[in-house]
Amino acid sequence: DDKILAASKRHPIVPLEKGQFYKYGTAGFRMRASLLEGITFRVGLLAALRSRKLNSQAIGVMVTASHNPAADNGVKIVDPMGEMLEQDWEKYATGLVNCQSDEELVKQYNELAHQLKIDLKAPAKVIYGRDTRPSGHKLVSALADALEATDTEYVDHKLLTTPQLHYLVRATNTEGTPLSYGKVSEAGYYEKLAHAFVRAMKNKKIDGTLTVDCANGIGGPKLSEFLKYIPKGKVNLDVKVVNDDVLRPEVLNLDCGADFVKTKQRAPPIPKPQPGARCCSLDGDADRLMYYWIDPERGFFMLDGDRISSLAASFIGDLVESAGLKHDIRIGVVQTAYANGASTNYITQHLKLPVICTPTGVKHLHHVAQSFDIGVYFEANGHGTVLFSPDALTAFKEKQPQSPAQKDALETLAALGDLINQTVGDAISDMLMVEVILAHKAWSLRDWAMTYSDLPNRLVRVEVGNKDLFHTTDAERRLSHPEGAQQEIDDAVKKYKDARSFARASGTENACRVYAEAATRSEANELAERVARIIE
Ligand code: 16G
Ligand code: ZN
């Protein structure tokens, strides 16, 4: 206790104004980096407890603020199989971080151990990584201090993309078992991806150059490193890495990256967009992906998470059919309320696959995707992945093919199982998946875009007095509070054709968000503004 107390005094919590408190939200704790040192220390205490609770398995801690500006940072916990921290534990994180004094912190830490029947003498292990933000150094040393103070073994994996840390957590905990997820090293991650990519490509040709905007974040150097692992001559992936300056912290996510592209609905101004070029953007920690090109006639066209989701579902659905597994394997797609209505229609009516809608936040989508043999989940913002159940993976490897076509499909499915990150959305892995699918279909981005037309839509951020007054039901598609607000939204929606709108409190900012879609752009804009006025 003395050790924890002394260490805690070196990493004080910055008190908030009366009535305010820190909250472990959809992205863990995320805010101005100057507020995070004490928080990260306390997160370290909780990660150590979690490891001890779960038979000394390794727990991950990632220090990143994703697409936020350079001055922010964040910290979140990764569970043993590479998943997000179990929801029940979020409140313990919130509890520890909001302790008013070091003494209270130690008391609450011990109480938590007692309540959860955790043996504080059991071994514990935590592994961690960080993105390129300069503030990361200080935060991981506070984290290490907490791990020292609690006699926890730890490994500092230094600079990583968020999905690489998730990979490493799972690889660490499955090492040497039949469920082994790959070598426990950054190189192991690249080797696994490169090998699976070559297998999945099956000598198909990739057309032209892919320009990858890395948001001047950690994805830049990591993507460049990955490219060295692709065997020359086996696949012709030609990648041009741009916006990969990680030496000037202030340019991180500045006028570039997946979040910029999605919210501004345009290409990053630098480098100057080349009409016709196939482009994609990663976000600051490389877990989100957006594709786009500048059409010489129609201008900017974006292929977002909904498009990636429907592309993956269509390709994998066809493969499962070709492999003769249609009746054995259940494929499902998971979306949030932000998914464009046209994508939902395309998946249910054209692909004839079930779609389930969940609240925003990867943990919700991931969980539901696990209930299928193959669960495809993407948020419209470009975060997502495809999960394969152990049964599905076994079927790909063990089913005896009845024809060369079946054999081919089974091999491609098995390769996708290795290529696609099974722990969390991974922009580099998702990008390779998209390249594989486009190569197999011999599609340009324009062909991909032609599969359906998005409904015009508009997203607005609304400043409200107290966002906590807004409660939702039906996977965030309806407001249950404040009283009467939903009725007003319904009345507004009725005035437009093919319209839909919802409002929800942001989980990452002190504001509400309103989404609206309708038959025309001007109607979508008008509806969004009406709904914004209702909740203002
Ligand atoms: C977090 C979520 C992201 C979600 C976003 C919504 C994870 C890893 N990240 O960044 O999935 O789309 O929050 O933000 O779950 P909002 O609640 O502010 O709209
Ligand atoms: Zn991110």
TrEMBL record:
Alpha-D-phosphohexomutase C-terminal domain sequence ranges: 459-533
Enzyme Commission numbers on file: 5.4.2.3
Domain annotation Phosphoacetylglucosamine mutase AMG1: ranges: 208-289, 304-443
Binding residue positions for substrate: E379, A380, N381, R504, A505, S506, G507, T508, R513
Active-site residues per Swiss-Prot or TrEMBL entry: S66 (phosphoserine intermediate)
EC main group: isomerase
Cofactor: how bound: Binds 1 Mg(2+) ion per subunit.
Record pathway: Nucleotide-sugar biosynthesis; UDP-N-acetyl-alpha-D-glucosamine biosynthesis; N-acetyl-alpha-D-glucosamine 1-phosphate from alpha-D-glucosamine 6-phosphate (route I): step 2/2
Gene Ontology molecular functions: magnesium ion binding; phosphoacetylglucosamine mutase activity
Keywords from the named record: Carbohydrate metabolism, Cell wall biogenesis/degradation, Isomerase, Magnesium, Metal-binding, Phosphoprotein
Cofactor entry: Mg(2+)
Domain Alpha-D-phosphohexomutase alpha/beta/alpha, chain residue ranges per copy: 54-91, 112-176
Pfam families: AMG1_II (PF21405), AMG1_III (PF21404), PGM_PMM_I (PF02878), PGM_PMM_IV (PF00408)
Described function: Catalyzes the conversion of GlcNAc-6-P into GlcNAc-1-P during the synthesis of uridine diphosphate/UDP-GlcNAc, which is a biosynthetic precursor of chitin and also supplies the amino sugars for N-linked oligosaccharides of glycoproteins.
PANTHER family: PHOSPHOACETYLGLUCOSAMINE MUTASE (PTHR45955:SF1)
Entry similarity comment: Belongs to the phosphohexose mutase family.
Record's protein name: Phosphoacetylglucosamine mutase
Source organism of the structure: Diplogelasinospora grovesii
